[in-house]
Amino acid sequence: MAFTVFILQLAVRILSFPLYLLKFLGLWNQISKKWFPYYMMKFSTTYNEQMAGKKQELFSKLQDFAGPSGKLSLLEVGSGTGTNFKFYPPGCRVTCVDPNPNFEKFLFKSIAENRHLQFERFLVAAGENMHQVTDSSVDVVVCTTVLCSVENQEQMLREVCRVLRPGGAFFFIEHVADEHSTWNYFWQQVIEPAWYLVFDGCNLTRESWKALERASFSKLKLQHIQPPLSCKVLRPHVYGYAVK
């Protein structure tokens, strides 16, 4: 089976040669960073429709972690187009972090559509290095479909723990690798070389739950689910929250 995967991956790489050439020439990063927000705007609409129940269920717990003032201070890592805003509680103070500055205009459109939130700032930064955010300064950190593309999951989770106040929580919804015995995992492996290039560094075969289990949280509530997404290779998910 491993040999078959290797041969098919080789075929995928050959078919993707123009993209690899653009990457070699240093052009692909500029192109992908500009077009990716437009793709995510469309994808996020469909994803929200198909994941609405799970998001409502999970994010209904956000307010439980508000500080003594009763107002929730929330940091969203990899905020993208602001697709999660409508699920956040009224009065929530939101800071957004994303490494791609081209998301900004889409983000501000979402802010204008979600007046129930108190927007604070947008920071162009990677999740692994959020030095603009002070230690123990937020009640909650949220990331959805982000751990698939960060360069270093462990470092990002260390940053999450650093910025969370004691007793604060990290909420996550992430697509992950399927069980290794499934045909879905087989195809995740086969198409991953092209997928990674086209979708801005997204990995289909990451077992992100392992990084969450290794992180220094005091409590972790994590579930494996298979939501009925249109794209089958994205169906395996983990979601839940972890408490510092």
From TrEMBL:
Family matches, as PANTHER family: METHYLTRANSFERASE LIKE 7A1-RELATED, METHYLTRANSFERASE LIKE 7B
Protein name: Thiol methyltransferase 1A
Record domain Methyltransferase type: where: 75-172
GO terms for MF: S-adenosylmethionine-dependent methyltransferase activity
Domain of life: Eukaryota
Organism: Ictidomys tridecemlineatus
